[in-house]
Specification:
The protein is 0% helix and 50% strand. The protein is mainly β. The protein has one domain.
Length: 161
């Protein structure tokens, strides 16, 4: 599906957007027992929202074989993500990913770029801040408003929400 992926750095990557071959997004929706399976072809827009930012300290064991941990003085950020998905039929789904999934964009030049994966949370590197963590902020699909809703091959229809 043609679209534009916007990263948290502000970079935009346009082209054919795809997930790991043959896989839908698996989204946990509050108040639902089973997660929804949403295909990119059902989506008009996907927004990734940062639900929580926190700093995690690094610990190590005080001595080999010891259960006592000591703080090393280093920290890293942890960001918790949620999703807001606008489906092609106009319905909206809000929730969080049940598991991460790889995201690719094939550009007009034929380059297949792997972006940061879509995932429920991300740990930055030790020494980074939350602003340093690069993640997908949004995916907007072209002609989403003018195309009819595609038939889902999944038995569960997310549009029924």
């Amino acid at each position: 599906m043609q679209g534009t992926v916007r990263l948290s750095t502000g970079e935009r990557i346009s082209g054919k957007v795809s997930l790991t071959s043959g896989k839908p997004l698996v989204v946990r929706v509050p108040g639902r027992k089973a997660p929804l399976r949403i295909w990119l072809s059902e989506s008009a827009r996907i927004d990734v929202v940062v639900k929580e930012k926190r700093v995690e300290p690094e610990y190590r064991f005080k001595e080999e074989g010891s259960n006592e941990k000591v703080y090393t003085g280093r920290t890293r950020p942890r960001l918790e993500f949620g999703l807001k998905i606008l489906l092609r039929n106009g319905k909206k789904v809000e929730g969080e990913l049940a598991k991460g999934i790889a995201l690719f964009v094939e550009t007009a030049e034929g380059e297949r770029r792997k972006t940061p994966p879509l995932k429920p949370y991300d740990h930055g590197q030790y020494g980074q801040t939350a602003r340093d963590v690069v993640y997908v902020q949004s995916i907007a699909f072209e002609d989403a408003a003018t195309e009819p809703p595609p038939a889902s091959s999944d038995s569960e229809e997310p549009a029924a929400e």
